[in-house]
Amino acid sequence: YGKNTIKFLRLHKEGKKHFVKEVEVCAHLRLTSPQEYLEGNNSLVIPTDTIKNIVLVLAKKNGIPSLEQFAIDICSHFMTTFCQVAYVKTYVQEVPWQRLHEDGVPHIHSFICVPDGIRFCEAEQCRNGPLVVFAGIKDLKLMKTTQSGFEGFCKNEHTTLPERHDRILCGELFCKWSYGECKDFDFNCIWYKIRECILEAFAGPPDCGEYSPSYQKTINSIQMLVLSRVSQVQVIEAVLNNTFYNVVDMKNLGLNNDKEVLVPVEAPYGSCACTLGRKKFFEA
After folding, report:
1. Percent of the chain scored above 90 by pLDDT?
2. Stretch(es) of the chain classified as CATH 3.10.270.10
3. How far is residue 176's CA from residue 195's CA, in Å, rounded to a whole number?
4. 3.40.710.10, 3.10.270.10, 3.40.50.1370, 3.40.50.1110: CATH of 2-129
5. How confident is the model at residue 18 (pLDDT cuts 50, 70, 90)?
6. 185 known member of a binding site
7. pLDDT tens digits for 221-240?
8. Dihedral angle at the C-alpha atoms of 24, 12, 195, 98, nearest 10 degrees?
9. Is the domain defined by 140-281 classed in CATH 3.40.50.2000?
10. Per-residue pLDDT tens for 95-117?
């Protein structure tokens, strides 16, 4: 049991310069005894209102140096404070506030919410077990208008989709990865490095791009680049929900529409998913 959707803004001030972290936290516990379920005995139950207050107090005392560290702090607090807690899991996601810039100059106390992907993390721990930390990005909308196709696929009497060698590749990406043994990681630096890998693998070189023969290959390219450059990542899961665009037929309007006006196909939409990890992880 636990408390979901604990939302708050943590404001940190360094002189005149302000820093913000707005987050949503879910914290769940499993106790050493199920007596509250089986017998109605609540003597071991930590009220969910108490769970909420603990999260807020930890934010006040420790701040949020990174989402991952904050999730670790929450897990650690419940494990060290309550002997009846057998398992704790914490999920934290961030509202994407970015500092405003005016003529290239960063503003000291003004921010803009930029929907370029939502950062999240999870931390979980069993008593006498290892701390496990995951991180990720979701709702990251990506598009490239060429250098994508889909050809040579399986066909039968039900196939109506034409082959395409030049199409728009667009989708909403969910990506989640797990770390190995968490030491003194700079979680913020790692997260931004992974985000750069995702964008680079999706788009290719800025002057020419890189051809994608399928959404599946694009997902694999993202995962391979992350694993090759970020040694702390052991396993990475990626899901790409596709958005297709159809060219509007304007012949009846006396116009030749050369892929200049398109309409999105909202539903149904395709989805591709893959989990990729280091061999030593799967052998373990």
Report:
1. 90
2. 2-129, 140-281
3. 11
4. 3.10.270.10
5. very high
6. no
7. 999 999 999 999 999 999 99
8. 90
9. no
10. 999 999 999 999 999 999 998 99
Is 216 among the annotated ligand-binding positions?
A: yes
Q: Kindly state the tokens that stand for 31.
A: 């106790």
Mean pLDDT for all residues in the chain = 95
DSSP assignment, residue 163?
A: P
Confirm whether residue 167 is marked as ligand binding.
yes
Q: Is 42 annotated as a binding residue?
A: no
Are 7 and 58 in contact by the 8 Å Cβ rule? The answer is no
Burial of 163 (0-12, 13-18, 19+ CB in 10 A): exposed
- Using a cut of 0.90, tell me whether the model's pTM lies above it: yes
Q: Is 275 part of any known ligand binding site?
A: no
- Token pair for residue 119? 């950062």
Q: 93 a known binding residue?
A: no
CB 19 within 8 A of CB 108: no
